[in-house]
Amino acid sequence: xxxxxxxxxxxxxxxxxxxxxxxxxxxxxxxxxxxxxxxxxxxxxxxxxxxxxxxxxxxxxxxxxxxxxxxxxxxxxxxxxxxxxxxxxxxxxxxxxxxxxxxxxxxxxxxxxxxxxxxxxxxxxxxxxxxxxxxxxxxxxxxxxxxxxxxxx
Amino acid sequence: xxxxxxxxxxxxxxxxxxxxxxxxxxxxxxxxxxxxxxxxxxxxxxxxxxxxxxxxxxxxxxxxxxxxxxxxxxxxxxxxxxxxxxxxxxxxxxxxxxxxxxxxxxxxxxxxxxxxxxxxxxxxxxxxxxxxxxxxxxxxxxxxxxxxxxxxx
DNA sequence: TAAATAAGATAGCCAAGCTATGTAATTGGT
DNA sequence: ACCAATTACATAGCTTGGCTATCTTATTTA
Lengths: 153, 153
Description:
The structure is a homodimer of 153-residue chains.
Chain A lengths: L7 H26 L8 H13 L4 H8 L3 H13 L3 E5 L7 E5 L1 H23 L3 H22 L2
Antiparallel strand pairs in A: 1-2
Chain B binds a DNA duplex (30 and 30 nucleotides) through α2 and α4.
């Protein structure tokens, strides 16, 4: 059971725990997102979050950022525009392109989601120990690092 | 801005971090699940995982366990059956019901997903410190606890 | 035994993903 | 300066996975 430089046993254990982490995170996200009220889909919320952080963006750039195809993002933006969450203006530098910007209504929706999601999970988090909560906050940061590396491939 | 018996400042901070956790987990799951090969959807994989852990189950019980409606689970099981991932047999105790069981092919699919997902994220995890990895494993367990509480409501 | 209940199936809708392809604007090579 | 290639987005058509409403059939119960 001694380790080699590739430590295949460790890799197998890591892979198993990694898949458990994915499943646990997947179930958690589903449970936490199932709160009441005017729900928006994950892709809409991620797009709003992206626009708030980065300012107006082209549809193609939004698609790349969210790792979906351009036709899919075109449809998402179209629905968001109908709901008034974003506005589009033609790109002065390129007649083919549009700039999509978050509206005040879009910002309210995003903030409302954050508040309600927090409200929903907060009681469950309150039953954890202080140490367990701090593990979750650290895990959020670490998952962010891992996600960035996965997305850079 | 003084604190009441409910310590609103702490709640607000917890809510904010909770929403950050949800977003981080959501992006991580998407990134980790975007591996190549014969992909199955999250609901199919969760259902397989559930059947493997719990043995043959009724469609209605599967729907409750996954928090989707019965008609949706009927469709999921139908597609899984066409792919040979599950088999159904009539419930000897209730002529209206079916028992859905995972097949060897379903077990292979589930195991294959676990291996590929692990393979995909393992390199990124290898760049973390030992402590960071152990935080993620702990977080998986804690998210499971929180999910159970959220789902029990 | 008739009524109420429960388990699945069906129908019909929508959102969100995909590939393939079309259109219009921009860029680039000669 | 022009024509070809590329680029940005739109459209068409498909699948999956979610929903509600309703139907059928089997079981329970009054």
